[in-house]
Amino acid sequence: MAEDPGGPARVLVLYERRSSCAATLAEAAAMAAEGASVTVLALARQDRSPARCVVYTGALNDGVRQDAAKDLADAREMLGPTAEQVIFMTLVTGREESVEMWAAGRFDLVLLPARRLHPRGHPAVRAFRRTGGISVRVLR
Q1: Running along the chain, 140 residues long, what does each successive block of 10 average in pLDDT?
Q2: How far apart are CA 126 and CA 35, in angstroms?
Q3: Pairwise CA distance, residues 85 & 83, whole Å
Q4: 14 phi and psi, to 5 degrees?
Q5: Angle, helix 21-33 to helix 57-79, in steps of 10 degrees
Q6: Into how many domains does the chain fold?
Q7: How far is Cα 112 from Cα 122, in angstroms, rounded to an integer?
Q8: 2 lies in some domain
Q9: Structural domain for 129, as ranges
């Protein structure tokens, strides 16, 4: 893991509601206990185009943000007392923005939960590695 010479490692946990996220959070908790700066991130992908269905885009986007807030509350609960040492945030993204570009320069390591049906464990692995300077770990 790359570490900032002046301080602890900066770790980003991409939280997704799936069973493998428990292992991801456990790893993050252990790193926080060792002094790493840990941020748990929930994504809220927003649609900026006019609605193409019955649900108004604004209402749909509100629901996505509420789901992200619920995900963070679940992550906080799973971390227990360690949650006091962790930063929790929601990143609102659209078609032009990406979590990978946002994370570049802010974090040394990204922890991703594995996806069972994806052959490489998580589809974001290559995108994070392309940004350079960020190590990526997929946990099962």
Answers
A1: 59 90 95 96 78 65 88 96 96 81 93 75 81 87
A2: 28
A3: 5
A4: -85, 105
A5: 60
A6: 1
A7: 7
A8: no
A9: 10-139
Helices then strands, each counted (H, E), the chain:
4, 5
Q: Which residues pair with 87 in a beta bridge?
A: 39
Residue carrying structure tokens 């946002």:
102
For residue 79 the two structure tokens come to 């971390």
Domain membership of residue 131 (yes or no) is yes
In the DSSP assignment, the letter for residue 51 is P
In a domain, 1, yes or no: no
56 in a structural domain: yes
How far does Cα 108 stand from its chain's mean position?
A: 13
Inter-CA distances, 16 with 36, 72, 140, Å:
21, 9, 13
